[in-house]
Amino acid sequence: MQGINGTIFAYGVTSSGKTHTMHGDQRSPGIIPLAVKDAFGIIQETLNREFLLRVSYLEIYNEVVNDLLNPAGKNLRIREDLQGTFVEGIKEEVVLSPTHVLSLIAAGEDSREQPLL
Ligand SMILES: Nc1ncnc2c1ncn2[C@@H]1O[C@H](COP(=O)(O)OP(=O)(O)OP(=O)(O)O)[C@@H](O)[C@H]1O
Fold it and tell me: Which segments constitute the Kinesin motor domain (predicted)?
């Protein structure tokens, strides 16, 4: 089985528009819904292969890596092996539909650190 890792990073100071860019609004979708739609669209058009999709969702806040899909996943370590770079112990949820991905991400949003303004 071949694996492909796709990672989207949003980087910037507080209120610079990371969340807006990733999620979009009523008028225009952001990077996450567009990427999810594309990925499932390609899968549907590819009849001769099977796909397994897993989603992780994390934040790096004040240099600390937190798993947004698992409240117990705090201060995780970034490591490297022959396959590449990975976050040790991060939850990877198998997803079956675009709605499934977007509901996971929405739940993860609620776990984010709230910046002190
Ligand atoms: N391109 C844009 N068009 C319209 N409104 C925007 C745009 N980018 C950001 N905003 C608005 O600016 C505010 C701050 O943006 P956002 O919450 O995306 O920042 P952030 O970088 O995620 O902040 P934080 O680091 O605090 O989470 C929000 O009210 C958002 O709706």
Answer: 1-117
Delimit the domains of the chain by residue range: 18-109
Q: Is this complex's ipTM strictly greater than 0.90?
A: yes
What token pair was written down for 49? 């292969």
The kind and range of the H/E element at 64 are strand 64-67
Q: Whose CA is nearest to atom 15 of ligand 1?
A: 17
Pocket flag, ligand 1, residue 113 (CB < 6 Å): no
Sign of the four-CA dihedral 88, 111, 12, 9: positive
CA gap 95, 69 in Å, rounded: 13
What pTM did the predictor assign? Answer: 0.85
Beta bridge partners of 85: 80
